[in-house]
Design a protein that fits this description.
The structure is a homotrimer of 192-residue chains.
Chain A (H helix, E strand, L loop, with lengths): L1 H20 L2 H30 L8 H27 L7 H20 L10 H25 L6 H35 L1
Chain lengths: 192, 192, 192
Amino acid sequence: MFAASADNIVTGSKLLMELLGADAPARAEIAERMRAAEHAGDDATHAIFHQLNSSFITPFDREDIYSLASSLDDIMDFMEEAVDLVVLYNIEELPKGVEQQIEVLARAAELTAEAMPHLRTLDNLTEYWIEVNRLENQADQIHRKLLAHLFNGKYDAIEVLKLKQIVDVLEEAADAFEHVANTVETIAVKES
Amino acid sequence: MFAASADNIVTGSKLLMELLGADAPARAEIAERMRAAEHAGDDATHAIFHQLNSSFITPFDREDIYSLASSLDDIMDFMEEAVDLVVLYNIEELPKGVEQQIEVLARAAELTAEAMPHLRTLDNLTEYWIEVNRLENQADQIHRKLLAHLFNGKYDAIEVLKLKQIVDVLEEAADAFEHVANTVETIAVKES
Amino acid sequence: MFAASADNIVTGSKLLMELLGADAPARAEIAERMRAAEHAGDDATHAIFHQLNSSFITPFDREDIYSLASSLDDIMDFMEEAVDLVVLYNIEELPKGVEQQIEVLARAAELTAEAMPHLRTLDNLTEYWIEVNRLENQADQIHRKLLAHLFNGKYDAIEVLKLKQIVDVLEEAADAFEHVANTVETIAVKES
């Protein structure tokens, strides 16, 4: 079930990528597909919670499963919010750094989707969480550079407000990938 | 104790409603009563935590009780913050959508207050959490329309900043109602 | 280990204090030392989590240890972010209230560092958490006055955006000190 949730996130990150070059009608259609992916993610999360709450025995600690499912759900929500804001605010052109943010998210999504099936055996996961932590640091640096860029005097205040909300929500998505990786590490350490 | 906390939230949502038509002196007086309601809420939360921490046996899982009390406390905090910001920023007129946000919160507050006594028997709760989830979706749509409205060019940037902070905190209150409903669902599923 | 984490926070709060009077080159150097302190904090947190996850028996409830370590880590992160934003946005002069915010944080840091060694015996902690709760209320009032000051018409919108982000992150640090104090209270009540 975690694998389904993570595959869904890969779909979401690809839609973010598509968004970059899209014109207004294409954006509206991408937002539609994003909303569908987010609903699928909600259903996956709800199914995990339902099974968790109605089971006496769980493969890992309850709170770790809960945390993993919640963080995967958060990633999808943040990605959907980013797309929605771009459409809502009718952003003409995104600053160049946003592409770098989305590339990092796409890479983190792939690694996360590859890692989920390994939860069964808990092997070969060390590289995954080290790499996601590295990607989060990279995302953080891109985000701070973007903030400096937004405030360099070229944008008016209204534009800064709109764009800052978008780059902040993409940064929150990167943080949520790190939460997933940290929870996977917690599970692996407990079982070892 | 949860019922007392939820009744307090109903009081808070009625004060939000009163705020809409009030002039400056009336607003200051509403803010005063809101602060009193928030302090009463803090005392209720503290009493729940104290009893929880000093009991060996609890009716539901500890973390669910903790989560329920925290989310009820959050709702009150967000509502108090909204009133405080309106007074602090000396907002002349709130955009029309804010009234809709507050109506949704008032409806969610009523439903939550009605649901709390059912925690004893855990029956008749399904409709409550479905309806609160529906209300949160509605709040989300109102919030996004409000953001688009704030950025449509009629407001200057400083005004956008002030109003955005207020509509965001009301949206956080709506999210917190959903957390309460989700926790109630979790408790009910575990016990069934 | 909690004591090491709290001592690190005292270091951080002193760096915040130094920042106030510093010119641009001195600020860059303070940011460097802050980053080092934050990395040391990360290592301390990671060591606590690792030991927690690989131990069968823990002195207090697992979730309380986890919450304590996370909140201490959050404080450091928020303080580092504040310094980083001052450098990033090249802020010429901080509003006067920021000094008051930092003084409250420095006092809370001292009290927290003094309290941590008492976790062993759990005595003499009541005064600590009452005082930190009082400091958080004070921080809240300073923060709200700062917001009113930022919006009083003297600053342009871009400047408001930059400064608001900084005073908000310092307020988040004050909130995180309160979370630490609340967790210490929870532990003490459970053991009594």
